[in-house]
Amino acid sequence: MRNSIGWRSVLPWALGMLSLVVLAHVVIAWAIESKAVRSGQRSVGARVEVGDTRVSLVGSSVSLRHVCVANPQSPLSNLVEADRCDLQFEPAALLHKRTIIRDGAVTGIRFGTSRDTNGALPGCEFAIDESLAGWLDEAATKTAQEWLDRLNKKFSRDLVDQLESIRLTDELLERWPRKSVQLEARAETLRTRTIDFQAQVREAQKNPLRHVDFLDQVPKQVEELHAELAALSRDIENLPDVAEADRRAIVAARKHDEQLLRNELELDPIDPNVLSAYLLQERMSGPVGDLLGWLRWVRRIVPAKEKNVGASHRGHNIVFTGCRPAPNFLIRTLKLQGGARLAGQPLEFCGTLADVTDRPARHDQPMRLKLITRGSLPLQVQATIDRTGPVARDELLVDCRLMLPKLSLGGSDKLRLSLAPTAATLNISVTLDGDRLSGDVQIVQKQVEITPSLSGELARLHVDRELQKTLSDVRSLATRITLSGTLDEPKCRIRSNLGPAAAEAMNRALARTVAGYTRDLLALSQERVNRRLAEFDRQLAATQDELHPQLVSSASVLDQLTTGADPGHRLTVEHLGRLLPADSLFR
């Protein structure tokens, strides 16, 4: 009798095995997804989400779909997001409780995408490190701002009132009213004396015998009055000569004025490196701070020293001499593909990530990352995380060409330089040995167009126009940022040809401005002196015109006293005797 197995008995076994396979796939997928989420959240400190996980035991592959890693610093955005992560693992390693990914691919990588939910983990708050705040040279900004303040103050003072020619002119006009009052008083006194003396003479002539002594002194007193009148006339006539001497003193003071202005407007130079730090610090602090933030993040994910791991509950691991313990998780090669934005421009990249492990100190190869971009924005990134030696060593190399957008440089509105969009080359070489930081960030810009802007008195004097003339000759900029110190206390030094170029341009612009400002002040002072001297000339002429009638009147009275009633006769004692009556006893 032939034995046969009917399909009725085979089908339940087949369905049971299929159910077990399906259940195994589901359980393994759930376990892998849970493990990936827990490990990621423990490392990053923010939510890690996986949309779907698929496992193929036959193909020894795992596929994670729509993976999102939240940004711990910004919980409403993703640090990184990937559409798909396909991994090929080695089944034999699973028998030794190890997970080894032979190769894999992560596609659809994006950075900084938005989230619909909060990505922060309860009880896991990300502490923003403030130690990087102000890590650049703040003293340079303060020094540059103080220098700009001094420049504004130099041009804001009223230097005209300090000029020697103005002072002499003001003294002349202040002195002249007193001189005029003195001359008027002398003229009035002389006129009054002359009139009174004339009245006395006429009164004496009525009775000459009684006033013979007085009449005898009349010629002498008349001569004295003539002398006083002549002296007063000379003083009034010499007033223009005295004013001319003052004019010559004012003209001579012009040289003193020029020297005073040169001394007051003398410009103290500024260190070009200080000006470079002032102009570039605000713009560079963000990118360089982000770079250091990434290094810190890497050190938090992959510490410099391996953390202590508790012993296994069962058995002991024995490592023979010449051998090293192996990590439990290892990704040999992982291909990367995605997109990002650099300097506001989109780019697509591809690359590889090799030798990624959870215990890097147990692996004999350092982790390596290589990325290149496609299209018009060439970019090369190489990163190495080495824990194979006694000292942890991290290296980052970046070489790219990019289009920089319009930039505004300067620590305040007192001096800002606006750079038009330009092509640039960026090179980054940073090394972290242990906690010791070293490296350079270099940026070279070609065909730059610089537009300066100033505020305060420098803007009022249009120094920016003079500055623009010199800066138009600057066609390229090279900036180097040298990093040193430690990761916790980084130090930075900025060197750029922008500082020397801006310093030279400022010196030239200020020299031309000072020359023009000096000419304007001298012209303004000359105009003011001429206006005041014209006022003085009018006052002088008015004084002469006012005193002239009084002098004429006094001179006429003295002439009458000298000649008597008849201009042909002198008033003498002999003349008085001839005027006595014919029958006088004293003839």
Explain this structure to me?
- The protein has 587 residues and is an alpha+beta fold.
- The protein has a domain of 146 residues.
- Helix content is 46%, strand content 26%.
- It contains eleven helices and 16 strands.
- The protein has a 13-stranded mixed beta sheet. The protein has a three-stranded antiparallel beta sheet with strand order 10-11-14.
- The longest helix is centred in the last third of the chain and has 66 residues.
User: Over the alpha carbons, how many angstroms does the gyration radius reach?
Assistant: 51 Å
Biggest sheet, in brief? Answer: 13 strands, mixed
Molecular shape = rod-shaped
| N- and C-termini, Cα separation | 212 Å
Task: Give the rounded overall mean pLDDT.
Answer: 78
Content of β-strand: 25-35%
- Reading side by side through the largest sheet, how are the strands ordered? 1-2-3-4-5-6-7-8-9-12-13-15-16
Q: What's the short version?
A:
By secondary structure, the chain is α+β, with helices and mostly antiparallel strands. The chain has a domain at 160-248 and 522-578. 46% of the residues lie in helices and 26% in strands.
Give structural attributes.
587 residues; alpha+beta; three-stranded antiparallel sheet; 46% helix; rod-shaped; disordered C terminus
Please specify the SSE layout and strand pairing.
Blueprint: H1 7-44, E1 48-56, E2 61-70, E3 78-89, H2 91-94, E4 99-111, H3 138-156, H4 164-206, H5 212-237, H6 239-264, H7 272-301, E5 329-342, E6 345-357, E7 367-374, E8 379-386, E9 393-404, E10 407-412, E11 415-419, E12 422-433, E13 436-446, E14 450-454, H8 457-460, H9 463-471, E15 476-485, E16 490-496, H10 498-563, H11 573-578
Parallel strand pairs: 4-5
Antiparallel strand pairs: 1-2, 2-3, 3-4, 5-6, 6-7, 7-8, 8-9, 9-12, 10-11, 11-14, 12-13, 13-15, 15-16
Helix pairs in contact: 3-7, 4-5, 4-6, 4-10, 5-10, 6-10, 7-10, 9-10
